[in-house]
Amino acid sequence: MIRNSISLQNQNSNDSDVLGVFEAVNSEFFQSLRSSQQTSSPFLVSSGGTTSRAAADKHWVLDLRKNYQNISFDLKKKHVEIEAGVTMGKLCSFLEKHKRSFPIGLSGNTGMGYILTGGISPLSRSKGLAIDQLIEIKGFWGNGKEFHLLRPNTKNELTNEWKALCGAAIFLGIITQVKLKTQPLRPLLSWTANLSFSQLSECINQAESWPNSLSLQWIFGDDIFAHAIGEIKNTGDESVLIKLLEKLPFSRNRIINKFNNIKSLPNLNFGNNNNYSNSNHSEVLGLLGPAWQEKNQQVLKILKELINKRPNKSCYIASQQLGGLTHLNDLDTSFIHRDAIWKPWINGAWEANNPAKRKRTLEWMTECWNNLEFICPGVHLAQIHPHLEWHKKELSSAFEDWLPNLEELKAIHDPRNIMPPLK
Ligand SMILES: Cc1cc2nc3c(=O)[nH]c(=O)nc-3n(C[C@H](O)[C@H](O)[C@H](O)COP(=O)(O)OP(=O)(O)OC[C@H]3O[C@@H](n4cnc5c(N)ncnc54)[C@H](O)[C@@H]3O)c2cc1C
Q1: Distance 48 CA to ligand 1 centre (A)
Q2: Strand pairing partners for 63?
Q3: pTM (2 decimals)?
Q4: Percent of the chain beyond pLDDT 90?
Q5: Domain spanning 188-400: which CATH class is it, in words?
Q6: What pairs with residue 60 in β-bridges?
Q7: I need a labelling partner for 153 at 20 to 30 A (CA). Which of 68, 133, 178, 219 fits?
Q8: What CATH number does the domain located at 71-184 have?
């Protein structure tokens, strides 16, 4: 153990009273876990430290940020190798020097967890998910055995282990290093605006028939803010994309801009008028489902009702768009909802250290989930909640029929359940 406090981006994790922090994963580390009375469940891994399970009261934490910072680039194959403490923003800055890019998500602050949990980028509709870029994975299974797996060349060579690591790795082992494909660095078009409720409905409608090079993300709380992002492959592309963006309705603050790197795009938030507070704690639940199409009005009406009764001003519902190459399925992965078009996520916030308000917010989140389940039957486990009642349900909605196979693999590779539970 190195120290007994930790500073993390996620407020719940940051405020937690941990048992101790390790900073390296090696045989000594596993020996300490084995000899500890308190190990089996209370142990968490932190890479980017952006989730509520990066640290928690009375848990040991393995913080990979300091000692796992290496990045290297293969000039010939254009592959990049990163260790687990590298943030997605740092990855993109590094690749920019080689005129390459990686489909990171809506924030450069996230870490390895972004890749390991699937990784839905605003560019995923044309590039696939982050797990689709994986070429090699190195780490330690929960039983302490070191592994180094290579991407299979064909479906016939696919093993359950590779499939499991692509989307469910965080339940089975500690990932220390990955090798990834990279993409050419191309300029991006960004459209941001504030919308009325009916304009959001229209934007979603239009986005559902967009080409794969364009995606829509939006956030609905006190206000509605949307962000469309498109990749410019050539000059012809640019005018087509601009025409589509100019067709989108908006109420105010419309800005169409060009950026040369995904990490420089504006954040998806409410601008200067947000009600975010550092004294809040929060949980996030990610859902997955098909296009809304003729159900558009019905879903939006439900959303409006849910937002109107949110228990805290910082609660919101947001969404990002998938589809196109996100469906890419040349090799099976543990991201089974390949046909999803929208990933709405529910952000539930409450005043820190107020159990009654926490309970109320978690009830609101459950209500949101129940009311949206008909249109979003899947779950994206970008954030896991083994500490909440709904963990069993989130696991079965995320992995469905593949879950028993994951449980079998866990019994082999993590028999003491030191990694987060699959039950
Ligand atoms: C501002 C913001 C924007 C986001 N945008 C997107 C987006 O566009 N698309 C998207 O898909 N997701 C997005 N996310 C979700 C985010 O990618 C996931 O929550 C992800 O799990 C965060 O990873 P982390 O390393 O930053 O966090 P951490 O809290 O460090 O880790 C998250 C989980 O992964 C496990 N874990 C982390 N590293 C390892 C490792 N090396 N080995 C084993 N287990 C590990 C931890 O146990 C933890 O449960 C966003 C999150 C934030 C905060």
Answers
A1: 7
A2: 46
A3: 0.96
A4: 86
A5: alpha beta
A6: 20, 43
A7: 68
A8: 3.30.465.10
Instruction: Confirm whether 71-184 and 188-400 share one CATH topology.
Output: no
How many CB atoms sit inside 10 A of residue 34's CB? 12
Measure the CA angle with vertex 313, ends 312 and 315; round to 5°.
Answer: 70
By alpha-carbon position, which residue is closest to atom 6 of ligand 1?
A: 105
**Beta strands per DSSP E along 126-232:** 134-141, 146-150, 173-181, 183-184, 188-194, 214-220, 224-231
Q: Report residues whose beta carbon is within 6 angstroms of any ligand 1 atom.
A: 44-51, 53-54, 64, 84, 105-107, 109-114, 116-120, 169-170, 174-175, 320, 382-384
Nearest atom (ligand 1) to Cα of 130 = 11
Label residue 293 left, alpha or beta by phi (over 0 means left) and psi (-120 to 50 means alpha). left
Mutation test of ligand 1: which of 7, 66, 112 has the most ligand atoms closer than 8 Å to its C-beta? 112
* 10 conformational bin, left if phi > 0, alpha if psi -120 to 50, beta if neither: beta
The answer to whether residues 131 and 151 touch, using CB atoms and an 8 Å cutoff, is: no
Residue nearest to atom 34 of ligand 1 (CA): 113
Using alpha carbons, list the distances in angstroms from residue 124 to 37, 40, 231, 278, 401. 43, 36, 11, 31, 25
The residue ranges of every structural domain in the chain are 11-63, 71-184, 188-400
Give me 67's structure tokens: 């000692």
The atom number, within ligand 1, closest to the CA of 284 reads 19
Q: What pLDDT does 32 receive?
A: 79
How confident is the model at residue 277, as a pLDDT?
A: 58
Residue 273 pLDDT: 43
Ligand 1 pocket test: which of 62, 64, 86, 170 has the largest number of ligand atoms within 8 Å of its C-beta?
170
Give the residue from 33, 4, 47 showing the smallest Cα distance to 141: 33
Closest C-alpha to 22, from 43, 1, 46: 1
